[in-house]
Amino acid sequence: MSAKKPRIAHAFAGITMPTSSHPAIRRVKRRDVHPSIHGNKLWKSSCLLMNYLQQHPPQHCNAVIDVGCGWGISGIWCAQNLQADVTSVDADPNVYPYLDAVAQLNGVTTTPLVSKFEQLSLSQLAKFDMLIAADICFWDELAEPVSKLVDRAVEAGVKRILIADPQRAPFFVVADHCVEAHGAELIDWQVESDTIKAQGALLLIEND
Ligand SMILES: C[S@@+](CC[C@H](N)C(=O)[O-])C[C@H]1O[C@@H](n2cnc3c(N)ncnc32)[C@H](O)[C@@H]1O
């Protein structure tokens, strides 16, 4: 009996999400490119974010910044489905060869920007209508830089901020701050497709 072949991609929300078994991803791996801050796969919180945006298409989305983008799927979804100009930000330059492979599979491009959350300035953030992020609060010490990033994004006039998370503890530190300081909404969200099941929460700030 032949062994079951590993799945090479998930079709989700109209987009192709390759797994690490996909030939395009394996090609990057063979170049010895190793993301080192957990940007080593597509994380499922991005499905919460894409599904939410699919059900609630944003008004302001010409210029979108995807922070802690990893392989970049949420921003790639915005480029493909909202025709947004997307800047994909990550502290780890090694995520970008993977992001490029995922973007190419989906027929779009995004602009890469290597930066830590804490380095994104008011004037940089002011160029964007919408800030998105998925699963960027995975260590306790990330709660403060992420909270301050949100503060700067609000001050810079970013109209919509949407952060998806599998409900890790540091995310709730950020959420409590954003509810208190910016009237953020915390929304429980789950998705289930043929091959993907995810649940978590979305932090939404409307800054119109
Ligand atoms: C868990 S992954 C999520 C990746 C992607 N958003 C997704 O949903 O597939 C977290 C990402 O945040 C990036 N990251 C971690 N700390 C960061 C920081 N201080 N500034 C910018 N990016 C950071 C990591 O390199 C990694 O790509």
Structure description:
By secondary structure, the chain is an alpha/beta fold. It has a single domain (9-206), classed as Vaccinia Virus protein VP39 (Rossmann fold, 3-Layer(aba) Sandwich), CATH 3.40.50. Helix content is 34%, strand content 25%. It has 7 helices and 9 strands, in the order ββααβαβαβαβαβαββ. Helix 3 links the parallel strand 3 (63-67) and strand 4 (85-90). The model has no long low-confidence stretch (mean pLDDT 95). The structure holds S-adenosylmethionine (SAM). S-adenosylmethionine binds at residues 37-39, 42-43, 45-46, 68-71, 73, 90-92, 95, 116-117, 134-136, 138, 145.
Unreliable parts: none
Number of domains: 1
Oligomerization state of this entry? single chain
> Count of helical segments?
7
Bound molecules: S-adenosylmethionine
Number of strands: 9
What is the average per-residue confidence, as pLDDT, rounded to a whole number?
A: 95
> What is the H level of CATH, i.e. the homologous superfamily?
Vaccinia Virus protein VP39
- Just name the CATH architecture: 3-Layer(aba) Sandwich
Question: What is the N-to-C succession of helices and strands?
Answer: EEHHEHEHEHEHEHEE
Termini Cα gap: 60 Å
Major sheet: size, sense and barrel closure? 7 strands, mixed
Please state roughly what percent of the residues sit in beta strands, choosing from under 5%, 5-15%, 15-25%, 25-35%, 35-45% or over 45%. Answer: 25-35%
The SS-based structural class is alpha/beta
In the CATH hierarchy, the third-tier topology is known as: Rossmann fold
* Strand arrangement across the biggest beta sheet: 5-4-3-6-7-9-8
State the shape. Answer: globular
Look at the structure and give the CATH class: Alpha Beta
- Based on CA atoms alone, the radius of gyration comes out at 16 Å
Helix content: 25-40%
